[in-house]
Design goal:
It is built from 17 helices and no strands. It has 421 residues and is mostly helical. Helix 7 runs antiparallel to helix 8.
């Protein structure tokens, strides 16, 4: 089988997995990325010439280097070296991108959408079972409600983007998949992801407003009915979660009570700010942050709880590895946002607009949502970030690296609609 066929099937598989199979998606992507690294490093394949990919890879390399310096400068030990393993994901990015782009852009786009639809429906099935039958917050196969909400949100929003960008190809199926993902996110009880998903839904409706206006013409009554039904079904759970939020805020502001979800976040942010001020240049090292959090929360707030991060991804990076690493990640998100906006403003074809939308989603969910939760450091989140970054860049403005003659030959062989996923 050619790389074209392998990449199409690989895309379908990895995008279908995260909400349902959890860390299996991480194992599969990393296995593929290691093979890609072997292919490039042995000279069998060349590194992609795409400038945007190379700039992002450079910023990731700066982030990795800063973490290595922080590790070595803060009482390193061989027993804690495993803390550095998540950094390998960032080193694999340019190799995975280079081989993944030996593909037809439209075939990869349809494989992505098919995978995200499967992920959305699978997420809803698991969420219903866990919430209604096991009496727990839905966490799918991720083992964590917040991580599950993030990856289900990305899958559902991708389905919505596909329904709007490819209006003549299965828009109903993708729209239903989006609703399924939204329901799964609701059952996860993750308030921040609810807000992000609603905001990004409105953003997508604005991006594809011309098609939306055509679609809604004469259907406003049906749309209003659908919105009312969804609101009624979700209102009890949503209201309950936000009532808990306000109650926690009152307990913190009026009584100084920190042992709630809101209070713990405030305590973590205060602790993180103090730790960053103590060593802003190189940080405290990834190997020391967990112990520092436990000790400071106990000493300063009397809280005996276990956290591995500060519930603010940027603050976690600044404390772990200093200002250089933090600025590199901020610059990376700024560059991705710039590429997304440029693709949406100047992209003439639907693939570029779909890619720009995926990149915009990535920035909002990871940089926006990560400011009150986690950005990097969880294997599923890191893997999904790479998957959407690679495909988003490729569709937005990437170069298909199929050999010219093969591309001409296969464009004829695969031109029929039955060849697309």
């Amino acid at each position: 089988m050619t790389y074209r066929g392998v990449n199409r099937l690989f895309t379908l598989a990895v995008f279908a997995m995260p909400p349902v199979a959890g860390s299996v998606s991480s194992v599969v992507w990393h296995g593929g990325a290691l093979w890609c690294a072997f292919e490039v490093l042995t000279g069998r394949r060349r590194l992609s010439p795409d400038i945007a990919m190379r700039w992002i890879a450079l910023l990731m390399l700066v982030y990795v280097a800063a973490n290595l310096v922080a590790f070595l400068a803060n009482e390193p030990s061989l027993g804690m070296a495993y803390k550095l393993l998540p950094l390998a994901t960032f080193l694999l990015f340019p190799f995975s991108y280079s081989v993944w782009t030996i593909s037809d852009r439209e075939e990869v786009a349809h494989a992505l959408l098919a995978g995200c639809a499967l992920a959305s429906f699978g997420a809803l099935v698991l969420a219903v079972v866990q919430y209604f039958f096991l009496d727990m917050r839905a966490e799918g196969g991720a083992g964590n409600a917040l991580v599950f909400a993030d990856v289900a949100c990305m899958a559902g929003l991708s389905c919505l983007a596909g329904a709007l960008a490819f209006e003549n190809r299965r828009p109903l199926l993708l729209s239903v998949a989006f609703v399924a993902a939204f329901a799964a996110v609701t059952l996860s009880g993750s308030r921040s992801v609810w807000v992000l998903m609603i905001v990004l839904t409105l953003v997508q409706l604005f991006i594809f407003r011309r098609f939306v206006a055509t679609l809604l013409k004469g259907r406003m009554l049906a749309l209003a009915g659908l919105v009312i039904v969804i609101t009624v079904l979700a209102s009890g759970l949503i209201v309950d979660r936000f009532e808990t939020l306000w109650h926690n805020v009152e307990r913190l502001t009026e009584g100084g009570y920190y042992n709630t979800s809101v209070g713990l976040r405030v305590a973590l942010w205060k602790t993180g700010a103090q730790l960053f001020a103590e060593n802003p240049l190189i940080g405290h090292g990834m190997q020391n942050v967990t112990a520092l959090i436990h000790q400071r929360l106990l000493d300063d707030f009397g809280l005996k709880v276990g956290f591995t991060h500060f519930h603010n991804g940027f603050l976690t990076i600044f404390v772990e590895s200093g200002i250089v690493a933090g600025c590199a990640i901020i610059a990376m998100f700024a560059l991705i946002a710039f590429l997304a906006v440029r693709s949406l403003n100047h992209g003439r074809d639907r693939l570029a607009r779909l890619g720009g939308t995926l990149l915009l989603m990535l920035v909002v969910v990871y940089a926006g949502g990560g400011s009150v939760n986690l950005i990097f450091g969880h294997d599923i989140l890191d893997t999904v970030f790479m998957m959407f970054l690679i495909i988003g860049l490729f569709l937005a403005q990437g170069t298909s690296r199929l050999p010219d003659r093969q591309q001409e030959r296969e464009s004829v062989a695969f031109s029929g609609p039955e060849s697309r996923l």
